[in-house]
Amino acid sequence: MLRIVEQAFRSDTGRQRQANEDSFFASPPLYAVADGMGGAQAGEVASRIAAESFEPAVRGSDPPEAYLRRIAEAANQRIHSIAQRDSSRSGMGTTLTAAIVEGDEVSIAHVGDSRAYVYRDGELRLLTSDHSLVEELRRQGRLTDEQAADHPQRSIITRALGPEEAVEVDTLTFSARPADVFLLCSDGLTTMIKDPRIAEIIAEASDLDAAVDWLVREANEAGGRDNITAVAFRLGAGDEAEVEGATLVGPSAEAELSSERIRAAAASRERRAGAVATAPPRRSRWRTAAKVLVVVLIVAGIGVGAWLAGRQVYFLGTDEGGRLTLYRGLPYELPLGVELYSEVYSIPVQVASLPEDRRESAIDHELRGRDDAVSLLDDLERASLTPAVEPAPGGRQDANGQSESSRASGDGKRNDGQR
Q1: 0.90 exceeded by the pTM?
Q2: Which of 46, 154, 243, 246 could form a disulfide with 36 if both were Cys (CB 3.0 to 4.6 A apart)?
Q3: Cα separation of 321 and 350, whole Å?
Q4: Is residue 345 part of a domain?
């Protein structure tokens, strides 16, 4: 019999968002992370409904996977019902990844692109499979693992709670061991930090509080383009002390963390670094400032040159509502938020509505002349009107043909460099 002997959690708005649409649930032996979408606070509402659905759920005689699936399906119905009654929340939805510990096993339920990992013997293993457009292309062999990892459209999800009346929930059960660490997280973490680095941080941190704090901080330092949520728990043998069973629903739940614990985590990092911060000599500060200024000027010069050169080229992508869009310039974003492209116009066609064999051409960001780009856009619009084969259950965008909206900004989350 395994016990949860340590847990930690944190949710952060990130550096490029105004609101936090992530939520989480932490009440041993049950944990969940939800990442909302929909705009105008609808994403925040959807994710919080999903997280709070675990609080009153009576277990009964359901096996673990069936229990998690039942909660997810109930949350889906509630979110969908609210969206149908309130036009301001039309199309809202949320991802959900949940875990429950029972005996020597951990069962997981999963919808969307929030992830579940297990860290064991120095290695980090991904337990879930993203329900995203890019992941579908990777499974089909149309993208390599490397291309999928950095693809600007990697955050367009194909399954979520809320947009449809019914949802397909993936479940699995994993045989656990003492010392296993499980991590549930939103894609605001995994799009900023690669898996090997996540493993290094868990290995080097003094405890899970320090690890979660470190993960969120490093995701912000890498750009913080989306909300960041991480929930972790460590298992131990049956004779080890179990953590207290307080229930926390975030992101407001992180206020429960005491200032003493936060300071302890910071002190732990300083001890590991083995150094004491001291003020640099005045001359060193001036030299550092001069170097920074030179770097800024170089980056600015490169940006201006690339912007001018890019005015003659065009590419296709999607806008914040997931519509096919014509862009002018280069599909890149420089440091300091310098964009090398501008939107020309959009058409009322969703990527998900295209035949599968045409989707890649809509998001590959290949540079074209204006006439060629406009011609391709017109061709894709005609292709979207061609009757398509009925999609597999759960393989949708959303009730209004939208894929993601409020989550469409930054890091390839703007659907062109966009979600």
Answers
A1: no
A2: 46
A3: 8
A4: no
